[in-house]
Amino acid sequence: MCKTVQYLLLFGLSLGILNAQTRTEKDLLGEKQIPANAYYGVQTARALENFQISSLTTQSYPDYVKAFVMVKLAAARANADVGRLKKDRLAAIEKACQAVIDGKYHDQFLVDLYQGGAGTSANMNVNEVLANIALELSGHKKGEYQYIEPHDDLNMGQSTNDVYPTAIKVALLLHNDKLLKEADLLAKAFHKKGDEFKDILKMGRTEGQDAVPMTVGQEFHAFGNQLDAEISALKKSEVYLCEQNMGATAIGTGITASPGYAEKVAAHLAKITGKPIVMSKDLIAATTSQQGFVMYSSTLKSMAVALAKISSDLIILASGPRTGFFEINLPALQPGSSIMPGKVNPVMPELMNQLCFKVMGNDLTVTVAAQSGLLQLNAFEPVQAIAMMESQGLFFKAMPLFRKNCIDGITVNKDVLAHYMDRSVGVVTALNPVLGYEKTTELAKEALATNKGILELIREKKLLTEDQIKKLLDPATLTGQK
């Protein structure tokens, strides 16, 4: 066989293999070979080349994938309602959307979360994947867009500028439900400890100094109530996420969208998500403004501030064991030093603190990105989405660990607390109504000078009977529970 014939055969064979492994798609910039088994298309392929930034992609957050698809499903139904999308195409799109909502095809949502173009690549990734799933489920081949087209059908009456922020809001709403459940369980864990420790007296402190008596139970119920307040704020912040701008299209004027579509897509999205989603009264303002993200992110930051404060309080209350407060014991999870034998560190509160610091930083990212948008569109929504979804994810994973590995196992060192109560000058405040401020001030001064306890001096000076002392130092009386 001559070399020319061999070359032609090899060329034909390689061309056949190439054609079998890829399909040709084209866009504004020209043709591109797409893997034959890929459900994404040409614009996704370009994004995969342009934005190799992080290991985070749309599929990294399953609720984000579902949210995008829910938006597309609502849009398709709204377009069918106004008579624009054909019923057979709607049926195919509905099947494709439901498959993804059920957890299938998530590996096709591959665009890096960090991207230029205000989310256009992410939106087109969804359009292309859903179109090709719908094609296959309808008996067609991937890429046969004459039957169902990513732009004309999946993006009908839409723009990235209304789809993308709406998808982010829906994703945050979906994951917020899960976050609230974990936060509620954590708050309940603190309240359970509050009940367990309700009769154990201790000294409260202000500005790091002895203040007045309280119970350990009151302290832990206070931790729980702080979280309850943050949970309430997080629930209330959902109202800002429920206002969406679908129907705004490019800048809020609704160009390419049909009359009545905007109202119908909001109604469909509310039904699909089970959330009270409404159309913004001013779509131009809603497309320009980032209020929903700023408000929700600030609530996550508030939760972080509370959790960090509580974590730091637990660290100092457990400090010691010989030279610190040592009022409580945190579960011993691991050796605390590579050099100091016997050292055990408060690793779970430390972990929670670090995550809280990250959430606080993420809120600053959202703030700066929201402020930096120009005119009718904010191009920095991708980094806001990353920041908020990361904050949600950190809390969702950390809260159950914090609860199970730390809070549930906390115990109290009663002897240490009793010693502090006996020695503290702070008890003197409870004697003001009986002995008067001037006399109690003298007692406090003498106690500090002589290193004696207040009760010790009272007994030496016979200022009160044992019965009076017992009544005055009753835990319920001292702590305002009577």
TrEMBL record:
Residues 428-480 form the Fumarase C C-terminal domain. Keywords: Lyase. Residues 30-361 form the Fumarate lyase N-terminal domain. The keyword Glycoprotein does not apply. Signal peptide: none annotated. CDD domains: Aspartase. This is Aspartate ammonia-lyase. It comes from Flavobacterium humidisoli.
